[in-house]
Amino acid sequence: MAKHGKVSMAVVRRLPKYHRYLGELMENDIKRISSYELSKLTGFTASQIRQDFNNFGGFGQQGYGYNVEELYNQLGNILGLDKGYNTIIIGAGNLGQAIANYRNFDNRGFRLIGIFEKNPRYMGLKIRDIPIMDIDELEGFSKDHKVDIAVITTPKEAAQEIADRVIALGVEAIWNFAPVDIKVPEGIVVENVHLSESLLALSFLIKESKRESENV
Ligand SMILES: NC(=O)c1ccc[n+]([C@@H]2O[C@H](COP(=O)([O-])OP(=O)(O)OC[C@H]3O[C@@H](n4cnc5c(N)ncnc54)[C@H](O)[C@@H]3O)[C@@H](O)[C@H]2O)c1
């Protein structure tokens, strides 16, 4: 299993789920929770949860469980949500616009500061007050703004070139939606979101579940 620092990627993938459930518990004014209750919510075993948290020193207290708000904040810090990231989107088509319109990313510290496009018909338009700019303005823009994350929502043919371009400008993290595995130098992080791969996995699961019910 791949590791990120000392922590395995499997743990990294579970952290956002814990964080989301804890956020919901806070909304419902629940102050503390045992690992058993957290396991019923998340579907992970209680020992898995304790092991996961032990990677970061462990947070619970024997006989008390976890303080929901404290754990939520600590996991948020571990996920880096306390930092705040300047984010740009490249490709203002269907998906780029949908992401730009989603306010929740901003609420979590992913500040959208610019949208870039090559199609002239989008120039001068804004999404939630963020201007859509010509892709040729990217270099000038990044002289005045520190960009932490670039979201790539261009067709796959343009994705690698866009990635190289933003990396040359100092961007260290890419959230890539184009169905291509972008190559990056060491030290640059990429999170690929390949929606069609997820859909194919769903198709497989449908097939398996039908097969199992037919065999019952
Ligand atoms: N829409 C979805 O639900 C979905 C699902 C799975 C995967 N994807 C992937 O996400 C990406 C975007 O999909 P979409 O549906 O939004 O496509 P789209 O065609 O609506 O939008 C892509 C936009 O990128 C722009 N673009 C192209 N080259 C560019 C460049 N060099 N610089 C700046 N902008 C450039 C185009 O002008 C266009 O506006 C694609 O790679 C697609 O395969 C989308």
From TrEMBL:
This is Redox-sensing transcriptional repressor Rex. It is found in: Cytoplasm. GO terms for molecular function: DNA binding; DNA-binding transcription factor activity. SUPFAM superfamilies: NAD(P)-binding Rossmann-fold domains, Winged helix' DNA-binding domain. Belongs to the transcriptional regulatory Rex family. The gene is rex. The keyword DNA-binding applies. GO terms for biological process: negative regulation of DNA-templated transcription; response to redox state. Residues 80-181 form the CoA-binding domain.
